[in-house]
Design a protein that fits this description.
Blueprint: E1 2-6, E2 12-13, E3 20-21, E4 24-37, E5 40-52, E6 62-64, H1 79-103, H2 110-118, E7 131-139, E8 143-150
Parallel strand pairs: 1-5
Antiparallel strand pairs: 2-3, 4-5, 5-6, 7-8
The protein binds zinc ion.
Zinc ion (ZN) binds next to loops.
Length: 167
């Protein structure tokens, strides 16, 4: 499904300094993939404008307008589609996630799914009470890694006695 659209807002705000601008520099057409409809991929051909920034002290002299909820800078997929694909990538990872995405009309490579997971911000780390450390060799003698795990004690449902096991 192809949707042709263009922006009509009179002004756009500079992402660097926040100053609104109405001075149009140029226009160009960009392609954004959106959530599938009836299992069919949706391609939005969007005409956007570049604006001059009027703030003399701003480093960005020219900026491109973004459409809230649809576009992000340099993104070829809509905000909603990226959120969906990121959720799939977290749940299923690369190969299985790519198969699932293809079934729902959003074909994507397994490598791109994994890049989306890697691009996520690290979760907030609170107070760590017990830290587990383990080393492993990716290639013995050449490359090693370290795993840091916050250890959370699990209260066992069965209490074992201290007696040694019977033989
Ligand atoms: Zn600016």
């Amino acid at each position: 499904m192809l949707i042709a659209a263009r922006t009509v807002a009179a002004k756009a705000s500079c992402p660097e300094c926040g100053l609104p601008s109405a001075r149009v520099h140029s226009r160009y057409r960009r392609t954004v993939w959106d959530l599938a409809t009836c299992g069919r991929p949706v391609k939005v051909e969007l005409e956007v404008r570049r604006f001059f920034c009027g703030e003399p002290s701003c480093d960005r002299k020219i900026f491109t307008e973004q459409v809230d909820g649809l576009t992000q800078r340099h993104a070829r997929r809509s905000t909603d589609l990226r959120a969906l694909l990121t959720s799939i990538a977290i749940a299923l990872a690369g190969r299985a996630g790519a198969r699932m995405a293809c079934l729902i009309g959003a074909p994507i490579s397994r490598s791109t799914l994994l890049r989306m997971v890697r691009a996520l911000p690290d979760p907030e780390v609170g107070q760590i009470t017990v830290l587990g450390v383990d080393d492993f060799a990716k290639k013995r003698g050449n490359s090693y890694g370290t795993v840091l795990v916050e250890w959370t004690p699990i209260v066992p449902s069965i209490c074992w006695t201290a007696e040694p096991p019977r033989t």
